[in-house]
Design a protein that fits this description.
The chain is an all-alpha fold. The protein has helices spanning 2-11, 13-19, 23-48, 64-75, 85-95, 112-120, 124-146, 150-158, 160-167, 172-184, 190-199, 210-217, 220-241, 244-260, 273-279, 286-307, 311-325, 337-351, 357-366, 381-400, 407-415.
Length: 416
């Protein structure tokens, strides 16, 4: 890298200065520019919309329309019916006259109604604003555990993945906060870590690896609190809404799993092995590939959490692996990776950078600018983004565990 740096300094001294001695200024400028573009874009969408409907047809807030509809159904005694796609579609048409038909379903467990019901009680614009503000607040609180410096916070807030979490109206901010809290507080504050892990059962596919990680590290208090929280949420939902929503949920998940083989949704938005296989023409083998990969990821997380003590490396491995362990994870959850990338960057800054580490970290942060990407050409960019983050985390964690796959990695680290 030094010859390239010297060449850059010789030919473009000002650019070299911005990328080296004044990198903090450059990062701040880029983050502010991104924020300005994002705020302008979202503001323009709001201005052009009429009754929250954009001129193109979708509703402002993206998938939050489904979450809001589910919350309203829970309040009005129709929680189980919301799992039926036709009922959901009819409800959305009543709530948003003129909406174009959208292929959305509700796949959350009935415990989600406990969280969504207060939002469903509020008018949609107010509920959306509260959803964004509360989600961003949780994300910022979790990000502060990783890098509380103002510049780091600014970059994480302005990151394209954060904008996706807002525009899509999805749960990216909340899931990012829960995974970060569960991983980083497992040893120091097991009660908080367990509560976060238990709350993540509202979106269970992203928390599959957390019990494995807790068990591997011997974080039994966090494990017990997580289990108790999950059981308490399930019991509360049974008391509040009855058994019918759970029966409907199981049926909806089974139906959705069967439909995945038909690829009824845009696989280019998936960040998983199944999505990558489908995009590369191996759809028929996608299920088997996903199962093998999930088992491998679970084994790897167990090994790292057993052998590595640094919470930042544990967190980065868990966050990136969690995204790929389920076949059903989308690009709008990439906010999960943003604090994890910063955890890796801080770790690398302390110990020296490995070959190719900085450009790959930049790629993970910047790739969401062009995501979800086109379905053709068939390159799984969303998956590549998450896999790059996992590769970086896994390499660092293996070195920390004393399992190096190239002695050069140690030499680069020591010589940086």
């Amino acid at each position: 890298m030094k010859p390239i740096a010297d060449l850059l300094a010789a030919r473009y001294p000002y650019l070299a200065e911005l990328l080296t001695t004044r990198i903090r200024f450059t990062l701040a400028a880029v983050a502010i520019l991104l924020l300005a573009v994002e705020i302008s874009s979202y503001g323009a969408t709001l201005i052009r919309s009429e009754n929250m409907l954009t001129p193109q047809g979708p509703v402002v807030g993206g998938d939050f329309i489904v979450l809001h509809e589910a919350g309203a159904a829970a309040i009005n005694g129709g929680a189980e019916a919301i799992y039926t796609p036709s009922v959901l579609q009819e409800g959305l048409k009543r709530s948003f006259p003129g909406i174009k038909s959208v292929g959305v379903t509700f796949q959350y467990p009935p415990t989600a109604f406990l969280i969504l019901a207060p939002f469903g009680a509020a008018p949609y614009p107010l509920a959306l604003a509260l959803w964004i503000v509360l989600g961003a607040g949780c994300f910022i609180a979790a990000a502060r555990m990783v890098a509380p410096a103002p510049l780091a916070m600014l970059v994480m807030i302005a990151a394209p993945a954060s904008y996706h979490a807002i525009v899509t109206g999805q749960t990216g901010f909340f899931t990012a906060a829960m995974i970060a809290t569960a991983a980083l507080q497992a040893d120091k504050r097991p009660l908080i870590a367990g509560l976060a892990a238990g709350l993540l059962t509202v979106k269970p596919q992203l928390g599959l690896l957390i019990p494995i990680a807790f068990a591997a590290a011997g974080c039994w208090r966090a494990f017990a609190v997580a289990a108790a929280t999950a059981l308490a949420l399930a019991l509360a939902s049974l008391i509040a809404f009855g058994v019918a929503p759970w029966t409907a949920f199981v049926g909806a998940v089974a139906s959705h799993g069967a439909e995945m083989g038909e690829v009824i949704f845009p696989v280019n938005k998936l960040v998983t092995f199944y999505g990558a296989a489908a995009m590369l023409g191996a759809q028929s083998a996608g299920g088997a590939i996903q199962i093998a990969a999930s088992l491998g990821l679970a084994t790897f997380v167990f090994f790292i959490w057993r052998r590595v003590d640094d919470p930042r490396l544990r967190y980065a491995v868990l966050a990136s692996a969690a995204m790929m362990t389920t076949p059903y994870a989308f690009y709008y959850e990439l906010a999960v990776l943003t604090p994890a990338v910063f955890a890796l960057a801080l770790y690398a800054a302390e110990r020296g950078w490995l070959a190719g580490e900085r450009p790959l970290l930049v790629f993970v942060l910047a790739a969401p600018l062009v995501l979800p990407g086109a379905a053709a050409p068939a390159f799984p960019l969303a998956f590549a983004t998450v896999f790059a983050a996992f590769f970086l985390a896994a390499r660092r964690a293996l070195i920390a565990a004393g399992v190096t796959f190239a002695s050069a990695a140690r030499r680069v680290e020591a010589g940086s």
